[in-house]
């Protein structure tokens, strides 16, 4: 009588099968927390459009992104269908809800809950990973021992900042994020443990590309929800309806710019790369951050136009133009890296020039908020159409229109 082999006790994903890189339902469930986080960030920025407010929200966004992308790296290795991994993600969800709820007051009276939730997610998840791979190859364990050392150092700065006030908190948290953001570029070098190699960052490219694409969808979806909610509460005048249509078309153009060619090119590049870890670090860990930031700022700009279509302050103009510009720059850099070409797409560079011309004070202040938003929307549509035509006529390689 033949007995079936016992099930593997490893918590790692089993690579090589057709659905090995499939994003699990629990991962999508986990992402719902970040719909809340993105909403909190856009509302927090909308309430304080000062330079300091933008700096604080930018720092908080970096933290939210870093928590999410690190978790995506971990679930790229660990199998989310295993009960232990699933329970870990659910615990991280709870901490993520506390983190998200604390965002608007993170620089006020909820600094400690925010920092504690953040540290729990970063350090706790890494400790769990080390437990999960305790029987796996030494190189993988060493890699996460190095990561733990860097995250623990940053955790001390997060907690120190939470116990401080005002500018001191800002300085501590900037230092904490600097430690976390520079560590991958330094290959997590630790005295006595050395540095990680690209081979240690072997990832499933299908999974990483899909995870980041889904986060972009989350951010775009939040933008549409905010626009729809604001439109529903506003009196439906001709200007308000026009602002709503402009916001929708702008969101469609942003979706088109990323998903028509960028997402596919990035997916193809990382799945065919000899060093997918390097691609994942540059194209997804770093270059997706300005894409997400641009969507959040664009959502703020859309709300401002819906609320006051006839005029815009300097801060409002910065949000209306700056959000799409940040997004376009991020997408251009992503496509540039994904296609390994000497220059970013020409269409995207021209689009950035158009947005820069719109931002000239003498020109911007002569237009209403609605006119500025419509001009920005037109620039995005031009870039998307240019790239589409160039690809369909065979003038450029994908992503280089």
Q: What tags apply to this protein structure?
A:
401 residues; I/LWEQ domain; 2 domains; 14 helices
Largest β sheet strand count, sense and barrel closure: none
Any idea what the radius of gyration is?
A: 22 Å
Distance between the termini: 63 Å
> Domains counted in the coordinates: how many?
2
Helix and strand content put the structural class at mainly alpha
Under the CATH scheme, the architecture of the largest domain is: Up-down Bundle
The count of DSSP E runs of length 2 or more, i.e. the number of strands, is 0
Helical segment tally?
A: 14
Give the overall average pLDDT: 89
Low-confidence stretches: 1-7, 395-399
Oligomeric state of the chains?
Answer: single chain
Overall shape: globular
Q: How is the CATH topology of the largest domain named? A: I/LWEQ domain
Strand content is under 5%
CATH class designation of the largest domain: Mainly Alpha
